[in-house]
Protein backbone atom coordinates (compact mmCIF):
# COMPACT_ATOMS: atom_id res chain seq x y z
CA UNK A 1 0.00 0.00 0.00
CA UNK A 2 1.17 3.49 -0.85
CA UNK A 3 1.33 5.66 2.23
CA UNK A 4 0.46 8.72 0.13
CA UNK A 5 -2.96 7.13 -0.46
CA UNK A 6 -3.62 6.05 3.13
CA UNK A 7 -6.43 8.23 4.48
CA UNK A 8 -5.09 8.11 8.02
CA UNK A 9 -2.15 10.19 9.21
CA UNK A 10 0.29 9.80 12.05
CA UNK A 11 0.43 12.49 14.69
CA UNK A 12 3.20 13.65 16.97
CA UNK A 13 1.12 14.78 19.92
CA UNK A 14 -0.33 12.32 22.37
CA UNK A 15 -4.11 12.41 22.69
CA UNK A 16 -4.98 14.48 25.76
CA UNK A 17 -7.66 12.08 27.01
CA UNK A 18 -5.63 8.85 27.04
CA UNK A 19 -3.42 7.70 29.86
CA UNK A 20 -2.51 4.26 28.55
CA UNK A 21 0.49 3.63 26.34
CA UNK A 22 -1.34 1.24 24.00
CA UNK A 23 -4.11 3.74 23.21
CA UNK A 24 -1.64 6.60 22.84
CA UNK A 25 0.56 4.75 20.33
CA UNK A 26 -2.34 3.19 18.43
CA UNK A 27 -4.09 6.55 18.08
CA UNK A 28 -0.91 8.41 17.14
CA UNK A 29 -0.18 5.78 14.49
CA UNK A 30 -3.72 5.92 13.11
CA UNK A 31 -4.46 2.27 13.90
CA UNK A 32 -7.64 3.06 15.81
CA UNK A 33 -9.96 6.01 16.36
CA UNK A 34 -11.48 6.73 19.75
CA UNK A 35 -15.25 7.21 19.78
CA UNK A 36 -15.76 7.45 23.56
CA UNK A 37 -14.17 5.95 26.67
CA UNK A 38 -13.67 2.23 26.02
CA UNK A 39 -14.96 2.39 22.44
CA UNK A 40 -12.66 2.40 19.42
CA UNK A 41 -13.04 2.02 15.65
CA UNK A 42 -10.44 0.04 13.75
CA UNK A 43 -8.80 1.93 10.87
CA UNK A 44 -6.96 0.29 7.92
CA UNK A 45 -3.67 -0.36 9.75
CA UNK A 46 -5.36 -1.55 12.94
CA UNK A 47 -7.79 -3.76 11.07
CA UNK A 48 -4.91 -5.52 9.31
CA UNK A 49 -3.46 -6.46 12.71
CA UNK A 50 -6.85 -7.50 14.04
CA UNK A 51 -7.51 -9.75 11.01
CA UNK A 52 -4.17 -11.48 11.46
CA UNK A 53 -4.84 -12.16 15.13
CA UNK A 54 -8.33 -13.36 14.18
CA UNK A 55 -6.96 -15.76 11.56
CA UNK A 56 -4.42 -17.26 13.95
CA UNK A 57 -7.15 -17.85 16.53
CA UNK A 58 -9.57 -19.22 13.92
CA UNK A 59 -6.98 -21.67 12.59
CA UNK A 60 -6.31 -23.01 16.08
CA UNK A 61 -10.02 -23.24 16.96
CA UNK A 62 -10.73 -25.12 13.73
CA UNK A 63 -7.82 -27.50 14.40
CA UNK A 64 -9.36 -28.59 17.71
CA UNK A 65 -12.69 -29.21 15.99
CA UNK A 66 -14.48 -25.95 16.76
CA UNK A 67 -17.48 -25.07 14.58
CA UNK A 68 -17.68 -21.35 13.87
CA UNK A 69 -20.93 -19.41 14.18
CA UNK A 70 -21.86 -15.76 14.49
CA UNK A 71 -24.47 -15.18 17.17
CA UNK A 72 -26.61 -12.11 17.61
CA UNK A 73 -25.68 -9.17 19.81
CA UNK A 74 -29.35 -8.51 20.70
CA UNK A 75 -30.36 -11.18 23.20
CA UNK A 76 -33.86 -11.95 24.58
CA UNK A 77 -34.46 -10.82 28.16
CA UNK A 78 -36.28 -14.12 28.87
CA UNK A 79 -33.08 -16.09 28.37
CA UNK A 80 -31.24 -13.85 30.82
CA UNK A 81 -33.99 -14.19 33.38
CA UNK A 82 -33.77 -17.96 33.08
CA UNK A 83 -30.13 -17.94 34.20
CA UNK A 84 -30.71 -15.21 36.76
CA UNK A 85 -28.20 -12.92 35.14
CA UNK A 86 -30.69 -10.22 33.98
CA UNK A 87 -30.50 -8.81 37.52
CA UNK A 88 -27.25 -10.39 38.73
CA UNK A 89 -24.88 -9.08 36.09
CA UNK A 90 -23.82 -5.51 36.92
CA UNK A 91 -22.15 -4.72 33.63
CA UNK A 92 -25.05 -5.84 31.38
CA UNK A 93 -26.24 -3.23 28.87
CA UNK A 94 -30.03 -3.26 28.71
CA UNK A 95 -31.66 -1.50 25.77
CA UNK A 96 -35.32 -0.97 25.11
CA UNK A 97 -37.13 -0.32 21.86
CA UNK A 98 -40.19 1.79 21.02
CA UNK A 99 -42.61 -0.84 22.36
CA UNK A 100 -40.69 -0.79 25.67
CA UNK A 101 -39.43 -4.28 25.00
CA UNK A 102 -36.18 -4.84 26.89
CA UNK A 103 -33.22 -6.55 25.28
CA UNK A 104 -29.74 -7.47 26.49
CA UNK A 105 -26.74 -6.34 24.48
CA UNK A 106 -24.56 -9.44 24.63
CA UNK A 107 -21.60 -9.33 27.05
CA UNK A 108 -21.14 -13.12 26.58
CA UNK A 109 -23.21 -15.83 24.84
CA UNK A 110 -24.12 -18.73 27.13
CA UNK A 111 -27.75 -17.54 27.06
CA UNK A 112 -27.79 -17.83 23.27
CA UNK A 113 -25.58 -20.80 22.47
CA UNK A 114 -27.26 -23.21 24.89
CA UNK A 115 -30.81 -22.79 23.46
CA UNK A 116 -29.36 -23.02 19.93
CA UNK A 117 -27.69 -26.34 20.64
CA UNK A 118 -30.79 -27.65 22.44
CA UNK A 119 -32.59 -27.46 19.09
CA UNK A 120 -30.25 -30.00 17.57
CA UNK A 121 -28.71 -32.18 20.27
CA UNK A 122 -30.47 -34.60 22.63
CA UNK A 123 -28.75 -37.97 22.34
CA UNK A 124 -25.34 -38.89 23.76
CA UNK A 125 -24.38 -39.47 20.12
CA UNK A 126 -24.73 -35.73 19.44
CA UNK A 127 -21.81 -34.94 21.78
CA UNK A 128 -19.14 -33.67 22.24
CA UNK A 129 -19.59 -30.36 20.42
CA UNK A 130 -17.47 -27.19 20.44
CA UNK A 131 -18.99 -23.97 19.10
CA UNK A 132 -17.16 -20.68 18.76
CA UNK A 133 -17.43 -17.20 17.35
CA UNK A 134 -15.39 -14.03 16.98
CA UNK A 135 -17.74 -11.16 17.74
CA UNK A 136 -18.33 -7.83 19.44
CA UNK A 137 -19.22 -7.84 23.13
CA UNK A 138 -20.71 -5.05 25.23
CA UNK A 139 -19.97 -4.50 28.91
CA UNK A 140 -20.61 -1.51 31.13
CA UNK A 141 -17.05 -1.45 32.45
CA UNK A 142 -16.57 1.05 35.27
CA UNK A 143 -12.94 1.68 34.56
CA UNK A 144 -12.30 2.13 30.85
CA UNK A 145 -8.97 3.93 31.05
CA UNK A 146 -6.72 1.22 29.71
CA UNK A 147 -7.32 1.77 26.01
CA UNK A 148 -7.74 -1.49 24.12
CA UNK A 149 -7.18 -3.50 27.29
CA UNK A 150 -10.63 -2.76 28.73
CA UNK A 151 -13.32 -1.78 26.28
CA UNK A 152 -17.03 -1.20 26.71
CA UNK A 153 -17.42 -2.61 23.21
CA UNK A 154 -14.72 -5.14 22.37
CA UNK A 155 -14.08 -8.17 20.21
CA UNK A 156 -13.91 -11.59 21.79
CA UNK A 157 -13.39 -15.11 20.63
CA UNK A 158 -15.71 -17.19 22.78
CA UNK A 159 -15.89 -20.94 22.54
CA UNK A 160 -18.36 -23.19 24.36
CA UNK A 161 -17.83 -26.93 24.65
CA UNK A 162 -20.47 -29.53 25.52
CA UNK A 163 -19.80 -32.98 26.98
CA UNK A 164 -21.54 -36.03 28.36
CA UNK A 165 -18.84 -36.98 30.87
CA UNK A 166 -16.48 -35.23 33.25
CA UNK A 167 -13.62 -37.19 31.74
CA UNK A 168 -14.40 -35.99 28.23
CA UNK A 169 -14.67 -32.40 29.45
CA UNK A 170 -11.36 -32.59 31.32
CA UNK A 171 -9.65 -34.04 28.28
CA UNK A 172 -10.84 -31.16 26.13
CA UNK A 173 -9.98 -28.59 28.80
CA UNK A 174 -6.40 -29.89 28.97
CA UNK A 175 -6.13 -29.75 25.18
CA UNK A 176 -7.35 -26.17 25.21
CA UNK A 177 -4.48 -25.19 27.50
CA UNK A 178 -2.11 -26.29 24.75
CA UNK A 179 -4.13 -24.58 22.02
CA UNK A 180 -4.07 -21.29 23.95
CA UNK A 181 -0.32 -21.56 24.50
CA UNK A 182 0.12 -22.02 20.75
CA UNK A 183 -2.04 -18.98 19.99
CA UNK A 184 -0.11 -16.66 22.33
CA UNK A 185 3.18 -17.98 20.98
CA UNK A 186 2.09 -17.38 17.39
CA UNK A 187 0.93 -13.86 18.22
CA UNK A 188 4.41 -13.11 19.62
CA UNK A 189 3.90 -12.96 23.39
CA UNK A 190 4.45 -16.62 24.28
CA UNK A 191 7.64 -15.79 26.19
CA UNK A 192 5.83 -13.45 28.62
CA UNK A 193 2.47 -15.21 28.90
CA UNK A 194 1.75 -17.60 31.77
CA UNK A 195 -0.93 -20.19 32.34
CA UNK A 196 -2.23 -19.00 35.65
CA UNK A 197 -4.35 -20.80 38.22
CA UNK A 198 -7.34 -18.78 39.39
CA UNK A 199 -10.39 -19.56 41.48
CA UNK A 200 -12.83 -18.32 44.03
CA UNK A 201 -10.37 -19.53 46.64
CA UNK A 202 -10.94 -23.27 46.73
CA UNK A 203 -9.44 -25.89 44.49
CA UNK A 204 -12.73 -27.40 43.38
CA UNK A 205 -14.01 -24.15 41.84
CA UNK A 206 -11.17 -23.30 39.54
CA UNK A 207 -10.42 -21.69 36.20
CA UNK A 208 -7.27 -20.85 34.33
CA UNK A 209 -6.21 -17.48 33.03
CA UNK A 210 -3.53 -16.67 30.51
CA UNK A 211 -1.67 -13.69 31.92
CA UNK A 212 0.81 -11.58 29.98
CA UNK A 213 3.40 -9.80 32.09
CA UNK A 214 3.33 -6.03 31.51
CA UNK A 215 3.50 -3.06 33.84
CA UNK A 216 0.12 -1.92 32.46
CA UNK A 217 -1.54 -5.06 33.81
CA UNK A 218 -4.46 -4.74 36.22
CA UNK A 219 -3.80 -8.11 37.86
CA UNK A 220 -1.01 -9.27 40.12
CA UNK A 221 0.32 -12.75 39.53
CA UNK A 222 2.92 -14.92 41.21
CA UNK A 223 5.25 -16.94 39.01
CA UNK A 224 7.44 -19.87 39.91
CA UNK A 225 10.15 -19.34 37.28
CA UNK A 226 11.61 -22.84 37.72
CA UNK A 227 8.42 -24.70 36.77
CA UNK A 228 6.65 -21.93 34.83
CA UNK A 229 3.61 -22.31 37.13
CA UNK A 230 1.73 -19.18 38.03
CA UNK A 231 -1.26 -18.14 40.08
CA UNK A 232 -3.42 -15.07 40.54
CA UNK A 233 -2.89 -13.03 43.73
CA UNK A 234 -6.62 -13.33 44.54
CA UNK A 235 -6.19 -17.05 45.10
CA UNK A 236 -2.97 -17.04 46.95
CA UNK A 237 -3.77 -19.20 49.99
CA UNK A 238 -2.12 -22.19 51.64
CA UNK A 239 -4.58 -24.74 50.27
CA UNK A 240 -3.97 -23.66 46.69
CA UNK A 241 -0.17 -23.40 47.16
CA UNK A 242 -0.15 -26.94 48.58
CA UNK A 243 -2.23 -28.35 45.75
CA UNK A 244 -0.01 -26.70 43.14
CA UNK A 245 3.12 -27.79 45.00
CA UNK A 246 4.47 -24.24 45.22
CA UNK A 247 6.44 -22.43 47.94
CA UNK A 248 5.42 -18.84 48.57
CA UNK A 249 9.01 -17.62 49.07
CA UNK A 250 10.05 -18.83 45.61
CA UNK A 251 7.34 -16.90 43.74
CA UNK A 252 8.06 -13.70 41.83
CA UNK A 253 5.39 -11.00 41.75
CA UNK A 254 4.41 -9.40 38.43
CA UNK A 255 1.77 -7.06 37.06
CA UNK A 256 -0.08 -8.84 34.27
CA UNK A 257 -3.06 -8.58 31.98
CA UNK A 258 -5.47 -11.47 31.39
CA UNK A 259 -5.48 -12.11 27.64
CA UNK A 260 -7.59 -15.24 27.80
CA UNK A 261 -9.24 -17.67 30.14
CA UNK A 262 -10.81 -21.10 30.29
CA UNK A 263 -13.64 -22.15 32.61
CA UNK A 264 -15.29 -25.28 33.84
CA UNK A 265 -18.99 -24.30 33.72
CA UNK A 266 -20.31 -27.69 34.83
CA UNK A 267 -24.14 -27.47 34.45
CA UNK A 268 -24.48 -23.79 35.37
CA UNK A 269 -26.00 -22.80 32.01
CA UNK A 270 -27.15 -26.16 30.64
CA UNK A 271 -29.42 -26.80 33.64
CA UNK A 272 -31.59 -23.62 33.37
CA UNK A 273 -32.33 -24.44 29.72
CA UNK A 274 -32.56 -28.18 30.39
CA UNK A 275 -29.91 -28.99 27.81
CA UNK A 276 -29.65 -32.72 28.34
CA UNK A 277 -28.94 -36.00 26.59
CA UNK A 278 -30.15 -39.56 26.86
CA UNK A 279 -27.52 -42.26 27.27
CA UNK A 280 -27.43 -45.84 25.87
CA UNK A 281 -29.89 -46.96 28.53
CA UNK A 282 -32.30 -44.16 27.77
CA UNK A 283 -31.46 -42.28 30.96
CA UNK A 284 -31.44 -38.51 30.88
CA UNK A 285 -28.61 -36.30 32.22
CA UNK A 286 -27.65 -32.64 32.05
CA UNK A 287 -24.88 -31.71 29.61
CA UNK A 288 -21.53 -30.51 31.01
CA UNK A 289 -20.02 -27.30 29.63
CA UNK A 290 -16.77 -25.41 29.39
CA UNK A 291 -16.12 -21.94 28.01
CA UNK A 292 -12.97 -20.41 26.58
CA UNK A 293 -12.44 -16.70 25.89
CA UNK A 294 -9.80 -14.51 24.29
CA UNK A 295 -10.12 -10.74 23.89
CA UNK A 296 -8.75 -9.83 20.47
CA UNK A 297 -8.53 -6.07 21.03
CA UNK A 298 -7.03 -6.66 24.45
CA UNK A 299 -4.50 -9.01 22.88
CA UNK A 300 -3.60 -6.37 20.27
CA UNK A 301 -3.24 -3.73 22.99
CA UNK A 302 -1.18 -6.09 25.13
CA UNK A 303 1.29 -6.67 22.30
CA UNK A 304 1.70 -2.90 22.01
CA UNK A 305 2.09 -2.42 25.78
CA UNK A 306 4.54 -5.26 26.25
CA UNK A 307 6.77 -4.93 23.18
CA UNK A 308 6.88 -1.20 22.30
CA UNK A 309 10.00 0.88 22.94
CA UNK A 310 10.31 4.63 23.49
CA UNK A 311 10.10 5.28 19.72
CA UNK A 312 6.92 3.41 19.05
CA UNK A 313 5.25 0.10 18.35
CA UNK A 314 7.12 -3.13 17.57
CA UNK A 315 4.87 -5.64 15.79
CA UNK A 316 5.83 -9.31 15.74
CA UNK A 317 6.07 -10.54 12.12
CA UNK A 318 3.02 -12.78 12.50
CA UNK A 319 0.60 -9.91 13.13
CA UNK A 320 2.32 -6.85 11.65
CA UNK A 321 0.05 -4.87 9.30
CA UNK A 322 2.83 -5.07 6.71
CA UNK A 323 6.00 -7.16 6.65
CA UNK A 324 8.13 -4.22 5.57
CA UNK A 325 8.07 -0.43 5.47
CA UNK A 326 9.76 0.87 2.31
CA UNK A 327 10.94 4.48 2.51
CA UNK A 328 11.88 6.61 -0.47
CA UNK A 329 13.97 9.57 0.72
CA UNK A 330 14.26 12.89 -1.10
CA UNK A 331 12.62 13.98 -4.34
CA UNK A 332 15.36 12.77 -6.67
CA UNK A 333 13.68 11.21 -9.77
CA UNK A 334 16.18 8.35 -9.85
CA UNK A 335 15.52 7.48 -6.21
CA UNK A 336 11.74 7.57 -6.68
CA UNK A 337 12.03 5.46 -9.83
CA UNK A 338 14.15 2.83 -8.04
CA UNK A 339 11.89 2.78 -4.98
CA UNK A 340 8.85 2.28 -7.22
CA UNK A 341 10.57 -0.60 -8.97
CA UNK A 342 11.40 -2.24 -5.63
CA UNK A 343 7.80 -1.72 -4.43
CA UNK A 344 6.37 -3.36 -7.56
CA UNK A 345 8.78 -6.29 -7.26
CA UNK A 346 7.92 -6.87 -3.61
CA UNK A 347 4.20 -6.81 -4.44
CA UNK A 348 4.71 -9.26 -7.27
CA UNK A 349 6.46 -11.62 -4.86
CA UNK A 350 3.48 -11.42 -2.52
CA UNK A 351 5.23 -9.38 0.17
CA UNK A 352 3.02 -7.08 2.22
CA UNK A 353 4.65 -3.70 1.97
CA UNK A 354 3.83 -0.20 3.14
CA UNK A 355 5.53 2.18 0.73
CA UNK A 356 6.28 5.66 2.06
CA UNK A 357 6.16 7.40 -1.31
CA UNK A 358 5.02 10.73 0.18
CA UNK A 359 6.60 13.76 -1.39
CA UNK A 360 7.47 16.83 0.66
CA UNK A 361 7.87 14.77 3.81
CA UNK A 362 11.33 14.99 5.39
CA UNK A 363 13.60 11.98 5.91
CA UNK A 364 13.44 12.57 9.65
CA UNK A 365 9.66 12.44 9.64
CA UNK A 366 9.66 9.26 7.56
CA UNK A 367 12.09 7.59 9.97
CA UNK A 368 10.07 8.52 13.04
CA UNK A 369 6.86 7.35 11.37
CA UNK A 370 8.49 4.02 10.57
CA UNK A 371 9.49 3.67 14.24
CA UNK A 372 6.02 4.66 15.45
CA UNK A 373 4.17 2.32 13.07
CA UNK A 374 6.45 -0.57 13.93
CA UNK A 375 6.77 -2.81 10.86
CA UNK A 376 9.32 -5.59 11.52
CA UNK A 377 11.60 -4.42 8.67
CA UNK A 378 12.49 -1.02 7.28
CA UNK A 379 14.02 -0.59 3.81
CA UNK A 380 15.40 2.78 2.77
CA UNK A 381 16.08 3.87 -0.79
CA UNK A 382 18.05 7.11 -1.00
CA UNK A 383 20.76 8.73 -3.09
CA UNK A 384 23.22 7.33 -0.57
CA UNK A 385 21.94 3.76 -0.65
CA UNK A 386 21.92 3.83 -4.46
CA UNK A 387 25.54 4.95 -4.46
CA UNK A 388 26.21 1.60 -2.75
CA UNK A 389 24.00 -0.04 -5.37
CA UNK A 390 21.43 -1.17 -2.91
CA UNK A 391 18.76 -0.82 -0.27
CA UNK A 392 19.47 -0.03 3.37
CA UNK A 393 17.69 -2.73 5.34
CA UNK A 394 17.12 -2.64 9.09
CA UNK A 395 15.10 -4.58 11.62
CA UNK A 396 12.77 -2.49 13.81
CA UNK A 397 14.40 -4.00 16.88
CA UNK A 398 17.97 -3.30 15.80
CA UNK A 399 20.01 -0.11 15.64
CA UNK A 400 22.17 -0.84 12.63
CA UNK A 401 21.12 -1.92 9.17
CA UNK A 402 22.99 -3.25 6.16
CA UNK A 403 22.99 -2.73 2.41
CA UNK A 404 21.22 -5.46 0.43
CA UNK A 405 20.30 -5.95 -3.21
CA UNK A 406 16.71 -6.34 -4.41
CA UNK A 407 17.37 -10.04 -4.96
CA UNK A 408 18.58 -10.48 -1.39
CA UNK A 409 15.55 -8.61 -0.08
CA UNK A 410 13.18 -10.81 -2.05
CA UNK A 411 14.95 -13.95 -0.85
CA UNK A 412 14.60 -12.80 2.73
CA UNK A 413 10.92 -11.80 2.62
CA UNK A 414 9.56 -14.20 -0.01
CA UNK A 415 11.87 -17.23 0.21
CA UNK A 416 9.45 -19.53 -1.61
CA UNK A 417 8.66 -17.20 -4.41
P1 LIG B 1 -11.55 -9.14 33.41
O1 LIG B 1 -11.32 -9.83 34.72
O2 LIG B 1 -10.29 -8.57 32.83
O3 LIG B 1 -12.67 -8.16 33.46
P2 LIG B 1 -13.29 -11.21 32.57
O4 LIG B 1 -13.02 -12.27 33.55
O5 LIG B 1 -14.48 -10.35 32.73
O6 LIG B 1 -11.97 -10.28 32.39
P3 LIG B 1 -14.25 -12.95 30.47
O7 LIG B 1 -15.64 -12.57 30.70
O8 LIG B 1 -13.86 -14.32 30.85
O9 LIG B 1 -13.26 -11.87 31.12
O10 LIG B 1 -13.85 -12.69 28.95
C1 LIG B 1 -12.92 -13.49 28.22
C2 LIG B 1 -11.77 -12.64 27.69
O11 LIG B 1 -12.26 -11.47 27.05
C3 LIG B 1 -10.83 -12.12 28.75
O12 LIG B 1 -9.86 -13.06 29.06
C4 LIG B 1 -10.24 -10.91 28.08
O13 LIG B 1 -9.18 -11.28 27.23
C5 LIG B 1 -11.38 -10.39 27.24
N1 LIG B 1 -12.08 -9.27 27.89
C6 LIG B 1 -12.92 -9.29 28.94
N2 LIG B 1 -13.39 -8.08 29.24
C7 LIG B 1 -12.83 -7.24 28.32
C8 LIG B 1 -12.95 -5.83 28.08
N3 LIG B 1 -13.72 -5.07 28.83
N4 LIG B 1 -12.23 -5.32 27.05
C9 LIG B 1 -11.45 -6.09 26.28
N5 LIG B 1 -11.31 -7.41 26.45
C10 LIG B 1 -11.99 -7.98 27.45
MG1 LIG C 1 -14.73 -8.46 33.53
Short description:
The chain has helices spanning 21-28, 44-63, 77-82, 85-88, 110-118, 166-187, 238-244, 296-307, 333-348, 363-373, 383-387, 406-413; strands spanning 32-36, 39-42, 67-68, 74-76, 93-96, 102-105, 129-138, 153-163, 193-199, 206-213, 219-224, 229-232, 252-266, 276-278, 284-286, 288-295, 324-328, 353-356, 377-381, 391-395, 402-404.
Q: How is this structure best described in words?
A:
The chain is built from twelve helices and 21 strands. It has 417 residues and is an alpha+beta fold. The protein has two domains: 305 residues, Bira Bifunctional Protein, Domain 2 (BirA Bifunctional Protein, domain 2); 90 residues, Anticodon-binding domain (Rossmann fold), CATH 3.40.50. The strands form five sheets. The chain has a five-stranded mixed beta barrel. A five-stranded mixed β-sheet has the order 18-17-19-20-21, with helices on both faces. β1 and β2 form a beta hairpin. α1 packs across α8 and α2 crosses α8. The radius of gyration is 25 Å and the shape is elongated. The model has no long low-confidence stretch (mean pLDDT 96). The structure holds adenosine-5'-triphosphate and magnesium ion. The site of adenosine-5'-triphosphate has 16 residues, from β8, β13, β16 and α8. The site of adenosine-5'-triphosphate (ATP) has 16 residues, from β8, β13, β16 and α8.
- How many domains make up the coordinates? 2
Relative helix content: 25-40%
| CATH fold annotation of the largest domain | BirA Bifunctional Protein, domain 2
Main β-sheet, spatial strand arrangement:
9-10-13-11-12
Strand content: 25-35%
Structural class, by secondary structure, is alpha+beta
Arithmetic mean of pLDDT: 96
Organism: Candidatus Nomurabacteria bacterium GW2011_GWB1_40_7
Protein name: Proline--tRNA ligase
Catalytic activity: tRNA(Pro) + L-proline + ATP = L-prolyl-tRNA(Pro) + AMP + diphosphate
Keywords: Aminoacyl-tRNA synthetase, ATP-binding, Ligase, Nucleotide-binding, Protein biosynthesis
Amino acid sequence: MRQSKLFTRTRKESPADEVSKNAELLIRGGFVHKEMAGVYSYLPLGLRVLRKIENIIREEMDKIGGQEVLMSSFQPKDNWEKTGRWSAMDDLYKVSDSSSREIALGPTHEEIVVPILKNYASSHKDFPVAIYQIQNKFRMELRAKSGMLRGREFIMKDMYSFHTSKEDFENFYEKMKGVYKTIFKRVGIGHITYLCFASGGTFSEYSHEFQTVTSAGEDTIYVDEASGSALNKEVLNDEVLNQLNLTKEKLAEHKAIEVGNIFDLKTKYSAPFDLSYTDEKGEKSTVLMGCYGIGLGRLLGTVVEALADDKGIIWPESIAPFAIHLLALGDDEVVLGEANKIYENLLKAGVEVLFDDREEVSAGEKFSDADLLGMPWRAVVSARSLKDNGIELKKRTEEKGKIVSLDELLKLLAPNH
